[in-house]
Amino acid sequence: MEHLRPTCLSQIAALSGFGVSDVALLAELDESTVSRLWDMPDWLDRIRGRSLQALIAAVPGVAEYATTYPLRTRQARLVHDLHREGLAVDEAVLVSLSVPAPYVANALEAALQVVRGDIARAMEYLPRFWGREQDRALDVLFSPAGGLLVDARPLLEAAGSLAPLLTRSAYSFNAILAQAHLTHHVAKATGVLPEQLAGAAMDRRGAFTLRSTVMGALGQSDDRDLADRYRHLVDKHPPLRLVEEWAFPTWMRDSRPTLDFSLPPSLLLRRTAGEILRELGQYGDAYCYYLVTTYVPLALDRDPTFGLRAGELRAALLERREMVNDPIIRRAMDTLARQIPTGAS
Asked: I need a labelling partner for 333 at 20 to 30 A (CA). Which of 56, 75, 240, 313 fits?
């Protein structure tokens, strides 16, 4: 990515044929204020908020520059810094993504901290990706093919090495979320199955990491047996059930993430329901089997209306069943669909 040259306010205004006095009049600013900024390449750093708002409202091109220049400058810095660490960013992918650009820049910043092995900084950045939209940036970052990085293997190796080190810190919500993101995306990219399925007792940290790893592995391996083993662990271990019930509603912002993994006693799973319906139509059979046998029953216990979409859930289950060949998965979908009243809203 080429070094970006700053653009003076005078250059932006000149495209509309405006001079200093024109801009001052139209933006209702003192002419001395505009004159002081006029030919400064770093005028965007020096201008005050109210004055910038006035310029945006009066001068075409100011809004676009104020939005794009800081972002492109940050992207250029990150591309350069990542290249020095041995990670080449695919710039064609960078400019074509549908993911919001600030999320992508945040993901590149997180990658930089991971590949540098900076535990403290990684623990600061990675928890900010808890949420479906934010996590799309991590998906394309860690993708082994067609993603943000020309070769994601160095990042995957660094993430695999860094994740176990996060357990050394004292109980920290940020450390838990950071470790979960790393293990999830490594498993999703590599298909490596989790090592913690022996069924030993686990605390919330271990439970959350296990869940994240299983979700990643299920997406890659389509392993029904893994979904079954995970369900048995959820039934056996209260901390795992706790994080399983907590994850979707906070991920979809039906509830705010809480340090103790608690949920409000009364909760309408409106956004969660929409996400589950989407996943039932798009994800692999083993992952859908996990939804049907593990998460959705917990969701229905908490919100029997399923975000006022229980009827849609029943229809989605019956529709997906017709696309499944595995008789065990078909039977599980039938069983859950029968538990939902035909006339449910």
From this structure: 240
**Count of CB atoms within 10 A of residue 262's CB?**
11
Among the residues of the chain, which ranges form H helices? Answer: 9-14, 20-27, 31-38, 43-46, 49-58, 62-84, 91-96, 101-115, 119-125, 132-142, 153-162, 173-190, 204-221, 224-236, 238-251, 270-282, 285-290, 296-302, 310-321, 327-338
Task: Give helix 204-221 / helix 173-190 axis angle, nearest 10°.
Answer: 20
Question: CA–CA distance from 337 to each of 286, 317, 320, 345 (Å)?
Answer: 17, 6, 11, 14
What's the confidence (pLDDT) of residue 170? Answer: 62
* Angle formed at CA 256 by CA 254 and CA 258, multiple of 5 degrees: 135
CA pair distance 145, 135, nearest whole angstrom:
17
Token pair, residue 264, equals 């409000």
What span, in angstroms and rounded, lies between the C-alpha atoms of 161 and 164?
7
Amino acid at site 345:
S
pLDDT of 191 reads 77
216 and 222 in contact (C-beta within 8 Å)?
no
* pLDDT value of position 201: 47
DSSP structure class, residue 4? P
pTM: 0.87
Query: 45-79 burial, b for 16+ CB within 10 Å, e for fewer?
Result: eebeeebbebbbebbebbeebbeeeeebebbebbb
Per-residue model confidence (pLDDT) at position 342? 73
Mean pLDDT in consecutive groups of 10 residues from the start of the chain, 345 residues: 78 96 96 96 93 97 94 94 96 93 96 96 95 94 94 95 81 90 92 54 84 90 92 94 97 94 95 97 96 98 96 96 96 95 67
Q: What pLDDT does 193 receive? A: 62
